[in-house]
């Protein structure tokens, strides 16, 4: 970015402001909110702000009292090394030094250091553009904290993707429970994107299940809004206890329930699926997704049979034994398939 004199003066002013450093490093909510508001009011200065951010992040600035002659000598030495390759003479170097006011010297040194470390900058930029992916295997759960402080509990056979420079925007395949860290000062939102819809939240706790060509969202506390894949549908605002299910494939709002029990919707976090007189046609697919297995129901009428209560999901054999002993299902293994022939 080529800077004119006015931009240099403004950049120097910002770099002398501790609040600008806090915004650049994302370390103080009040300062972050102040500068975000400033750049929203002055969008033409956004690029200059990003240049300043690059200087702050790229170089750990620390003002220390040094003798001015030492400061000048250090800068002169750096410029001399650069000019040995460029063929510039002493006269040009002195002319440039005379133009540098004392307050500018540290900016010049920082810029030179930034140029000398451009290889690292390119590497870091490429790293920031590479997505981070968290995934779980069949029968496995995983809990982690995102860079913004939000907690994620990932269910089995699920995948969460985000970019290091935008940790409050994630993509989900499978199921996860989120406890989002509030950003009260900035009002920054947290977004979960699935094949069917986008969930936009502030600080809240909610569950997202994106399986079987549909996405179910259960809100435990706080407030979220959903924007489904169909642009003609209006936004759906949810309250605690709401359960919404939407299918992009069917282009249909499948469920919109109120006052749903959290016990049923998020019990998987504690290693148990809770069913409330749920037909096998709905219960068995949930277990299939967790373990990567297939149930084959030999008689279609069995799909209407219901189960009510808990099914442990930490271990496949324990799950199968529970279905046999507690719910009376006759189950036989056939490779990776499990045949259900009846109910005792």
From TrEMBL:
Protein name as it appears in the record? Uncharacterized protein
FecR protein domain spans which residues?
134-224
Q: Which Pfam families match?
A: FecR (PF04773), FecR_C (PF16344)
- Where is the Protein FecR C-terminal domain positioned along the sequence? 273-340
Keywords in alphabetical order, please.
Answer: Membrane, Transmembrane, Transmembrane helix
Q: Mention one GO molecular function.
A: sigma factor antagonist activity
Q: Which residues cross the membrane?
A: 106-123
State the PANTHER family in the record.
Answer: PERIPLASMIC SIGNAL SENSOR AND SIGMA FACTOR ACTIVATOR FECR-RELATED, PROTEIN FECR
Q: Which InterPro entries match?
A: FecR (IPR006860), FecR_C (IPR032508), Ferrdict_sens_TM (IPR012373)
